[in-house]
Every structure is written in structure tokens, then in C-alpha cells.
Sequence to fold (560 residues):
Amino acid sequence: MDYQMEFAALLEKELHEHSQQDISKMIEKPRYDQQGDLAFPCFTLAKIYRKSPAAIAEGLAGRIQSSHFVKAEAVNGYINVFINKTEAAANVIAAILREGGEYGKSDIAKGSVITIDLSSPNIAKPFSMGHLRSTVIGNSLSLIAEKCGYRTVKINHIGDWGTQFGKLIVAYKKWGEEEKVRANPIKELLNLYVRFHKEAEIHPELNDEGREWFKKLENGEEEALELWHWFKEESLKEFAKVYELLGISFNSNHGEAFYNDKMEQVADELKEKGLLQESEGAQIVPLGEDMPPCLIKKKDGTTLYATRDLAAAIYRQKTYGFTKSLYVVGAEQTVHFKQLFAVLEKMGYPWHKGMTHVPFGMMLKGNKKMSTRKGKVVLLEEVIKEAIMLAEENITEKNPDLANKKEVARQVGTGAVIFHDLKNYRMNDIEFSLTDMLRFEGETGPYVQYTHARASSLLKKGNFTHTPEPFVNGEDANWPLIKSLAAFPEVITHAFEKNDPSQVAKYVLELAKKFNKYYAEVRILADDPCKQSRLTLVATVKTVLEEGLRLLGIAAPEEM
Ligand code: ARG
Fold:
């Protein structure tokens, strides 16, 4: 039942100049519950009808009559209507019981494809906080898109190509030790890379050597390729540990190197289309006044990050035929993606319109960017493991006999890290704090998970049986929960439209808070004829909390 459309239909009968769609768009949600559930402002009608908004509202309110609304009131130029709560409650509860985890799904996509470029860490470097943000935001966006009917393709565009690998090879050949690298790959490779930059300040000719080795790499020379391969394998092993802890997987792991044999074609195409220009020996695509030109090839003929992204975009369109393509990458790369999309537009590809850069802010610690500064490596795997360990301590304290403690600790520890990220609008910078994110009280993942576990335990204690005819009504204690439950589908579509998982995170927080208030006020398990009906409400809240958490990439343990 779409109450907003129903209200709009009733108004349309009275206001012939406006379509139902237009009226629906004007309808607002009153700030306070006592003002009703939906409100229609009459201010813009004053001119047309030459009456005061208050008089128009008075006149119209008397004519709003429908079994779906119990009351229509004119207040200060608004018509406020009150939904028939008993009917609404029955509808929402029945829908959730019927659809279970499917509740809230839609088909705005009609089965079309969305590619999501996410995570994409750089080999031979630690998995950074920025890459964690991309992983977590991208994963949630993909789950949300799927819920909206998209076929999703999650692509991990690993940073495994570029001049830096020429430099790394030089550093390894000069100062590297195989044993050390094998024992501690990421750390050693990073040390070598850092040392290279230090020494290159005094001996700039090292940079030329680095470029030469990258050229060898691009030309497919064996020694270069072998070393590169090894560095890559070692790095991927490390990254895999992080993905396993988070429970995240990809549909494609084609990194930048995959496009090595596809870039010449792009350069040729750009030339054919008359877009390529030479500038100081390099090949560029000029992009007008408001953007720097896009660099396609350097003086020595080697390719760049942007060249690989161009090849990747064209490949993805050919392979998947996407209608939408998201790039979940930090805000510092905004110009790069503007350039990328602009070049594709110039190439005449209409599908560039479906491409979106989804930027995000930084992860801070003590107000400073958490970065892999010289020598000081924050290993993400360790951070996540620490969160899991702290979660386990917490569980041991609260519920020492829990059966699958290790797995629940993993779910709660990673849930804490993920929720802490996703509850903030992605553009905001986030302060990283393990103690904050792991609290069981307050706006945390564990709080929502705990609320879900509480609902589960109530169902068990109360021997919940699926009553064939739920008779939950819209009585005052139920209403805030019913309203939230009814809003879930809309929250998902909004989150999708704005590429904003924080809307789902904030929603589950609200629902959890309301449920805990209900739990505090109502004796759910009291033995009276309404017990199963109350438990039905609990069951629907549990279903929606679980599904909301799932859309964030967070598990909902039954007990914790
Ligand atoms: N590896 C890149 C970095 O760490 C991110 C890649 C993002 N995806 C892309 N298609 N450019 O900066």
C-alpha cells in the first residue's frame, strides 16, 4: 500500500491542474508524529485559487475521505493526514512475513548490469585505510544494487602496473635479499621502495634506471616479468587475508596489468578519431580549459594510469555491457575520473553517461591522515585482527559459554570496523578508534548486532510460532516500529540513487533504537492473548535488522 500515492490520488480529484505524480512530489512528512503521517502544503495553490493557504487547506481537508486514512486535518496551510494504523501495520507485517529476506527488493534495474570498481590496492605496498574504505563502501553498494535488481560485477582493479614497479625492480636488484622478501613481503618491498626514493634524491639517475626497467616490463622482458610476478603473488597472498577476514570476494581480479595488451588499440583509436596530440614528446588528449589534458603515453612510449583506465572501461563495456559503472575511489582522484569520462565522451561512447566516480574522505588517526609513512606501516590485517580479538574479550565477558565464539567474534569485530565506516556519509573524514567502534552501546555495529541477537533470543524464549493471521495493530507502542519497517524499501532505493550506504546504516541504527525502546516499555513475553502478536512484530524487526546489516556487508549472529 503506497499511502503517499493514495493521498495524491485523493488530492488530484480536487486539484485538476495537477497530476497525481506532481502532487505526490509535493507531499511532505511532518516532523512530529502528532502532526500526522503525511502533509500537503497549500502555499503554492494560493495564487491559483486566490484564497489563503489556510482556507484552501480547510476546504480540502473536509473532502479527503478514504478507508486508508482515519483523519485529515488543516493546520497552518497544510493538510495533515493520519494513516489507518491498523491497516498499515497488518500490511507491513504480512509483507515481511511473506517475503522474509527479500523484503525491500525492487526492480528498478530490470536485470541490467552494474560494474563496481572497488578495493583496488597496489601491490608491493600495504593494504591502506583508503583501500579498506573503498572495499567496504563498494561491497555495500554492490549488495544494495543487487537488491534493486541489478546484476552486479565487483571488480578489483589491482594496482599492479606502472613506473613504480620499474623502480622497485631496480631497488630489489641493488639492495634486496630474497630471503627477507619471502619472510615479510609487503614490509620488505615497501622498505625497498622507500629506500629507492631516498637514494634517488641524491642520485636522480636512479629514476632513469627505474623508467628503463618499466619499459622492459612493458616490452615483456623475462627478468623484469619474473620479478614483477613474484612481487605480485606475494602481495596478493597478503591481500587475500584481509578479504577473508572481511568475508568479501570479487567477480573479477583483473588488475592494471591485464590491460597491457589492450592499450595500443586505445592509442590507435584516439589517433584515428583525431583526439591525440603531441606535447613535449608525450601523447595527450587535450580536454579544454577546465581540465588538465589526459596523458596517454609518456615520452619513452610507456603508458599511464589513465591509459589503463581507458582500456579497462572499454573492455568492461564490451565484456559486461553495463548500464552503470561505479568507481569507488578516494576523493583525491576526482580529476582523474573527470578526465577519464571526458575522454570517453570525446571518443563518442554514449555509455560514458552511466559512469560515476563515487568518492570518499579520509581515515584519520589523531586528526591526521592514516598513511603508510616512511617505515611506519599500519598493517590493516593486524588492525582487523585486533578488532576481532577485542570483540572476543567482550563476548567472553558477557557470554562465556557461547558455542561458536571464534566465528561470532570475527563477525562482531569486522562488523564494528565496517559499521564505523558506513554510518558516516562517505565524503566525511572519519576518526579511527577501535574502542569507539567496538562499544556495545551507542552508534556501533555491535549495538545493532546485539539488538538483533536480543530479538532472536526473545523469539526463542517466547516459542514464537508463525501465527497464520498476524494481528499486530497500530497501537501507540507499535507504531514507531511499524513506520520504520514500512520505510525500509524506500531507504534502499534512496541509498542506491545516492550511492550512499550510510542511509542504510543510519536506518538500522534507528530501527535498533526504536526496538530497544519498545523492549524497555512493553512486556513482550507477558502471558496474555497478544503475546504471539508481539512476537510477530519482534520477528519482523529481526528480519529487517538482519537484512539491513547484510546490505552493509555485516553478519547478524543469532547469539553473542
Ligand atoms: N590502485 C589505485 C590506487 O590505489 C586505485 C584504483 C582505482 N580504480 C581505478 N579503476 N582507477 O590509487
Remarks:
- The domain at 118-369 is CATH 3.40.50.620 (Rossmann fold).
- Residues 117, 120, 122, 157, 159, 309, 327, 329 surround arginine (CB under 6 Å).
- The chain has three domains: 3-83, 118-369, 380-551.
- The chain is about 55% helix and 10% strand.
